[in-house]
Structure formats: structure tokens, C-alpha cells
Amino acid sequence: MNLAVHGLEGDIQKAITYYEDPHELLGKADYVMANPPFNVDEIDADKVKNDPRLPFGLPGVNKKDKVSNGNYVWISYFYSYLNDKGRAGFVMSSQASSAGRDEAKVRQKLVETGDVDAMIAIRSNFFYTRTVPCELWFLNRNKPKSHRDKVLMLDARNVYRKVTRKIYDFSPEQEQNLLAIVWLYRGQSERFLGLVSKYLGQVVGEGQACFEWQGEDDATIHALPDYLESLTALHGQLAPFLDTLPKKGPHAETLAEFEKERKLLTEDVDRFRASVGQAAKQWEKAPDTNAGLNKLVRQFAPLAESSRDLIKQADLLYKLATRLIEICETECSAKDSDEWSGKDIVRARKVADESRQMAVEQLKQVRYFWKQAQWLTERFPDGQLRDVQGLVKLVDVAEIEANDWTLTPGRYVGVAPEEVDEDFDFEEALREIHVELEDLNTEAARLAKTIKKNFEELGI
After folding, report:
1. Of the four listed, 104, 129, 229, 306, which is most buried by Cβ atoms within 10 Å?
2. Phi and psi torsions of 264, nearest 5°
3. pLDDT recorded at residue 2
């Protein structure tokens, strides 16, 4: 079903993998990729004890002659399928990396082969149906000699994107950043630098797109200029009524603030345009060397900060406009005036809000891609792999042995230093809390209704 859903074809055969190998994969696979069931119990030990796919022996048998946990059965099978140059990547329950007793003995033998390449810890809520954390195991039967007695430990539990209240995932850029660490581990520094350069190029591209880009229907969109124009149009709809009001009144202070902030935003947008132009020239001239890209990240920092400041200004202006409309309607009796065109004002307000959202989203992209480049260069300033507290460490087998052969990345990389989220949006957080509360209230009402129905059916 999984293959069909993703439009892939495969040689699917009916079998119980624990006891059968219908494809006769032993020692043949170039690659193994799998997401097996976690923590399966009651595997008949007598049926598998002599299976050649268990080169490290049975992981553990209970009093009923059953393998009490199938995790290491899967791990052994995947390892045995690989040929001399084969590589495997699979998802596994997080408890497997530190399981004790007979499972630890199997893990020790696996580590001693030198074929465990990398371990990546993933936080909880990455599955649609289960909340459990997991780990990605990577095996390589053809590791270079320099890595034979080492394992890359990568703790990605603090790297995630919140999709819904219950589901997290990696953004494409987060995936690329984790992959870039593996590139450094493999000595592929040029790929790491290429990714940093790409991000900085996207900073320039997204900045230019704030002023002009082609939409899906090939229409030319000018996000920031369009927003400024929409504010001018909204003010034009308000002007006939505002002109009838005295210079002093409940509306005057808000109107003055609105006009002041509109002028300031217009000036700052012009400065931002000039900064984008300068950044484009800097990016074209900068060499794709580690020193050159680090310098460019620092040079682009003011541009990224400007994009964040413009977002705050854009939001403030829209709030001032809506406040001005409310004051006119509630305190200046605007609806009773012939100069007040309610429908036109509602329409202009909607256009301004849509333009604001488009401008804000485009501005966010400028800082977003700069943050990706900054994330990489801050952690790996020399363009070389190094230990990073709470994120990554290259661990030798002696240290793994000293830690009871555990392969849990968090055991080695330590705790990540607490970071201040400069981009934290308090209003958005409140909206998320509100949505979550609404979901919980709806669920509570549904459960209460079900319980009441069950009581009625029981005659209680």
C-alpha cells in the first residue's frame, strides 16, 4: 500500500518476514531502507534461532521460548542483507539504542564490526499515529578506514517544524542542514559550502521578490509596493469623511500616528530596496570559500534584521488603520454620514490585509534563509566537522564501550544550550493556544455526548 500511495512499483510477495526471506536477499543488497514495526514481541525463537540472517545470535528469549522484542531481529536482518559495499538506513524505536541484557550483546557485536555509520535521534510526534521518539540508524559495510572505529552521533531532537498541535516534521531546509553535517563527516566540505552559498543567494532572491516576482498565474506581484498602495487606497476611502471632522477629536491622534508610520514605512522600504541591491552585488562578488561565505553571512545580517523590522511596521500600520476605522464608526458616528462608504471601506480594508499578509510572508523568507546560513556557519565556522554541544559528536568505539555500548546520541553530545527565540511571535502563540483550546473543548463535548449516550443505553 505504501508503494502504491507513492506511485512506486515493487516485487511484493506474501510472507512473514520474521521466518521467511522470499527475495533471498542475504548478502545481496546495495541499499536497505526500512521503517519496520517497533517492539514486536512473541516471535517464535525456535523458528529463527538458526536463521543465517541473525549473524549476532538471538537478542533475547523469554520463558515461553519467544523473542520478547523484535527490534534487534530487524536490525540483524537489515545488516545481513547488505553486500560488502552495502548501506542501510532505517527507523527504529529509541529504546533499541540503549536496550540491555541480550540486546546489548547483539548491539556490541554490531558496533565491533565497525559498520555502524551514524545515529540520529528524532523527537516525538514525528509519526501520524504514535507519539514515540525514534532514531535513524545508518549502517555502512564499506566505511573508510578513518571512520571504522567511529560513529557519528547526531541529536536532532531540537530540530523540527510544528505542523499541527500533534504532528511535527522537518522543513526541507532542516533536512538539508542535517545532511550538511553528514557531508562534513564524509569530508565533503564543498557541498556544505555550496549549501551555505545557495541560502545566501536565496536571501537576495527573496529580497528582490519583495518588490517584484511572478505569481502562479504569471501575474507580476510587487509585495511591498502593493501594500503601500493598498494603504494609500484605504486612506483615500476614509479621507472624505475624515475631512468633515474637526482637527481635534478621538480620531485625530490615531490618524496622525497612522500618517507618521506610513511615511516612515515608505522611507524604510526604499532603504530596504537599496540594501537588497547592495546585497546582490556582494553575493555575486563573494568567493565561495569558507572565509568568503562567513563574511557574507555577517554582511547580510543587517538586511535580515531590516526584513524583520519591516514586518513589525507593516503589522502596526494595518492595526492603526483598523483602529482608525473603528474609532470613526463607534465614536464619530461615521455610519450616519453620507461621506462614509461602508462597502468600499470594507473592500479596501480587505485588500490592505491581503496585501499585508503577502508582504509579511515574503519578508519572512529573507530572514528565514539568512537564518539557515547562519545556523550552519555558526556551528561549523571552519567548514569542517566539529563537536557541537547538544547537536553532534564523532564518537570512537572506546567511548561507546565505556557507555555500555549504547548508541543513543544524547548520551554523547550533551545538552544543547538554551537559545532565545528572537522570532517568537506572542500573538501567533496565543492564536495557537486558542485553536488548541477550541479543539480540546470540541473533543470534550464529543466525549461527554458519547458517555451520556452509553449511560442511556445502559439504563443509568
Report:
1. 306
2. -65, -40
3. 79
Q: Which three cell numbers stand for residue 159?
A: 530540530
d(CA 117, CA 142): 10
Chain-centre distance for alpha carbon 419: 16
Rounded to whole angstroms, how far apart are CA atoms 256 and 262?
10
Q: Concatenated DSSP letters for 187-207?
A: T-HHHHHHHHHHHHHHHHHHH
List the one residue out of 28, 23, 78 whose CA is nearest residue 53. 78
Mean pLDDT, residues 414-437: 66
Distance of alpha carbon 133 from the chain centroid = 16
Checking if the pLDDT of 428 tops 70, the result is no
Q: Is 7 left (phi over 0), alpha (psi -120 to 50) or beta?
A: left
Cell triple for 268: 524604510
Could you write out the three-class secondary structure of 138-156?
A: EEECCCCHHHCCEEEEEEC
Beta-strand ranges (E) seen in 209-259 are 213-214, 220-221
The H-assigned helical ranges of 332-382 are 342-379
Cα–Cα separations (whole angstroms), residue 310 to 209, 213, 293, 364, 370: 15, 19, 25, 10, 16
Our CA angle for 121, 123, 125, nearest 5°, is 140
Run of H or E residues at 16: none
What per-residue confidence (pLDDT) applies to 21? 93
Contact 199, 366 (CB under 8 A): no
Q: Which residues pair with 394 in a beta bridge?
A: 152
